[in-house]
UniProtKB/TrEMBL annotation:
<feature type="domain" description="Periplasmic binding protein">
    <location>
        <begin position="47"/>
        <end position="308"/>
    </location>
</feature>
<dbReference type="InterPro" id="IPR028082">
    <property type="entry name" value="Peripla_BP_I"/>
</dbReference>
<dbReference type="InterPro" id="IPR025997">
    <property type="entry name" value="SBP_2_dom"/>
</dbReference>
<feature type="coiled-coil region">
    <location>
        <begin position="67"/>
        <end position="101"/>
    </location>
</feature>
<dbReference type="GO" id="GO:0030288">
    <property type="term" value="C:outer membrane-bounded periplasmic space"/>
</dbReference>
<dbReference type="GO" id="GO:0030246">
    <property type="term" value="F:carbohydrate binding"/>
</dbReference>
<protein>
    <submittedName>
        <fullName>Sugar ABC transporter substrate-binding protein</fullName>
    </submittedName>
</protein>
<keyword id="KW-0175">Coiled coil</keyword>
<feature type="signal peptide">
    <location>
        <begin position="1"/>
        <end position="22"/>
    </location>
</feature>
<keyword id="KW-0732">Signal</keyword>
<dbReference type="Pfam" id="PF13407">
    <property type="entry name" value="Peripla_BP_4"/>
</dbReference>
<dbReference type="InterPro" id="IPR050555">
    <property type="entry name" value="Bact_Solute-Bind_Prot2"/>
</dbReference>
Length: 376
């Protein structure tokens, strides 16, 4: 669906945004060389391109949070939004259409980081700066915001080892590792962080990459691992995200397993949290997407208006290198590991979900829901 959002126009709010900037909320400072010449008072066009809609985060959090953050900074700005549904060519077309229509800055979460280099080149040839969102697109983008993705992988690997130790199965079994999409640079970082922790500490029966981060593909891969290694010998599963963990649980269930081995995840999807409280998934990684979207909006406003993003009071930008060796100013946020023990202190405390969203009828008799119901 072509979702085009127009922020309320003709409200004299440039001043509010400028006041926010002056108060250090907007985190723009010096004039950057060669930056855009759009102005917050007049407003400008921002293009947001997200990669897929199978993973819940994009439509549920990334897009609305970005929209809110942009409106806070620039009430006269207009957002054009597209989701590529995991299709590289579709994202290419969406980007081209946005550039033709006329945007002043592009915020890009690439389906395929290498292919995205041509989107970046195209934008920059039209003086449209690019903020890489969550995944570092190649081609020398202007800014990048994400989480520390190597740490995401480490946190997942450490949690899996901890669970195997708790269950006393660390030394006698094997694990299966199911990684994300090979065209997503984050997937490589999750893998390297996780495998750095797991390798040498546990036997790895099988390892797979999963094109498109597809839950169905993850399920098929898990079925293949079960056929080759036997469900009873698989003591744990490293899954790079919650969507794929759903497929992995389905494969184990259809092989007759009713007590799940420890399985990892990422994204703190409602379904992931529900599996955690029901004992079907060991952990997930909670990423504070609101902060990511806010930084992206700050970077986009800075880039479009020819200012330099400096992180303000809250963030210290760092430098990262993209796959072409280009240096990019980046903000990398910290991920948080979530198990049944800290759902309340993280997910609930942060207002990411309400108790009611998690404790639906099917989960009402879990320990977690009974305890929180007792507290209310
Ligand atoms: C994101 C994850 C997400 C995955 C699949 C990664 O680039 O960082 O949060 O689960 O893509 O969309």
């Amino acid at each position: 669906m072509n979702t085009r959002t127009r922020f309320s126009l003709r409200v004299a709010v440039g001043a509010t945004a400028l006041a926010l900037l002056a108060a250090g909320c907007g985190t723009t400072t010096n004039e950057a060389e060669g930056g855009g010449d759009a102005s917050v008072e007049e407003g400008f066009n921002v293009g947001l391109l997200l990669p897929e809609s199978q993973t819940a985060r994009y439509e549920r959090f990334d897009k609305p949070y970005f929209e809110e953050a942009l409106q806070e900074l620039c009430e006269n700005c207009e957002l054009t939004y597209q989701n590529a549904d995991q299709e590289t060519a579709k994202q290419q077309d969406q980007a081209e259409a946005m550039l033709t229509e006329g945007i002043d800055v592009m915020v890009l979460d690439a389906v395929d980081t290498e292919a995205a280099a041509s989107i970046v080149a195209n934008a920059q040839s039209q003086d449209v700066p690019v903020v890489a969102y969550d995944r570092l697109a190649q081609g020398g983008v202007d800014y990048y915001v994400s989480f520390d993705n190597e740490t995401v992988g480490q946190v997942q690997g450490e949690a899996l080892l901890e669970a195997l130790e708790e269950e006393g199965t660390l030394d006698d079994g094997e694990i299966v590792a199911i990684h994300g999409s090979p065209t997503d640079p984050n997937a490589d970082q999750f893998k390297s962080g996780a495998m750095g922790v797991l390798e040498g500490n546990v036997d790895i029966a099988a390892e797979y990459d999963t094109p498109g981060w597809s839950a169905e593909r993850a399920q098929e891969q898990m079925e293949g691992a079960i056929t080759s290694h036997g469900a009873e010998d698989i003591e744990g599963v490293y899954s790079a995200n919650d969507g794929m963990a759903a497929g992995i649980v389905a494969a184990l269930k259809s092989a007759g397993v009713d007590e799940m081995p420890p399985i990892t995840g990422q994204d703190a999807e409602v379904a992931g949290i529900q599996r955690i409280i029901a004992g079907e998934q060991y952990m997930t990684v909670y990423k504070e997407i609101r902060a990511e979207a806010e930084v992206a909006a700050d970077m986009a406003v800075a880039a479009a208006t020819g200012q330099e993003y400096d992180g303000g009071d809250e963030y210290t930008p760092t430098e990262v290198e993209d796959a072409d060796g280009e240096t990019v100013n980046a903000v990398l946020l910290d991920p948080v590991s979530v198990t049944a023990d800290n759902v309340e202190d993280t997910i609930i405390a942060d207002g990411f979900y309400t108790v009611d969203e998690i404790c639906t009828e099917d989960y009402a008799d879990t320990d977690f829901c009974e305890e929180v119901a007792g507290e209310q």
